[in-house]
Write a structure and sequence with these properties.
There is one protein chain. By secondary structure, this protein is an alpha/beta fold. The chain contains five helices and eight strands, in the order βαβαββββαβαβα. α3 packs across α5.
Length: 219
Amino acid sequence: MGSEGPPAVTIHLTGFKKFHGVSDNPTETIVSNLKEYTKKKGLSKGLILGSCTVLETAGQGALPALYQTLQSALSGKESESSSSGKIVWVHFGVNSGASRFAIEQQAVNEATFRCPDEMGWKPQKVPIIPADGGITRVRKTSLPVEEITKVLSKKGYEVMTSDDAGRFVCNYVYYHSLHFAEQNGTKSLFVHVPLFLTMDEETQMQFAACLLEVLASLC
């Protein structure tokens, strides 16, 4: 039984719908189309692309849907990837001022929204998970961010590491996901992408597909 090589890595994705100032969110396109895209290109053996979910760009009001999504990967553990397989969550968000990709190392336990989210919530200096402590508490991903960035750079992508995912919905989702990952033995990563106006769709699709392969090789 144990001689079949390394256990499978299942990577689940999320992106976001439109939000204030960004009517066309590239992450919705990436996450909606990546399954089809990777079918044409093929994925490495042992790499499974799991669920691809587009989330509301909202904090507190969208929490039940976020946890339902995160939980669904655990209930699928027995079936699609064997229970010894690894589960990785990759959350994509857009940074409309960016000209390259950013691999986020950490999230902060602080929600300070510069504008209301899509459900009208505008918290200021609120702890994301109060039981976790104050708004200065930081959670870091257990994935090797520097190494991931280095490999992607070598493949020709404009990419950097970042230790600041903001204090808006991206950071909010990442913090919850990192907390969930620690509790459930999964891994989580947040990646900021530019607008399609700044970096075209094909390049971003190639990057997302390449990121899956890099994560599977480094997990």
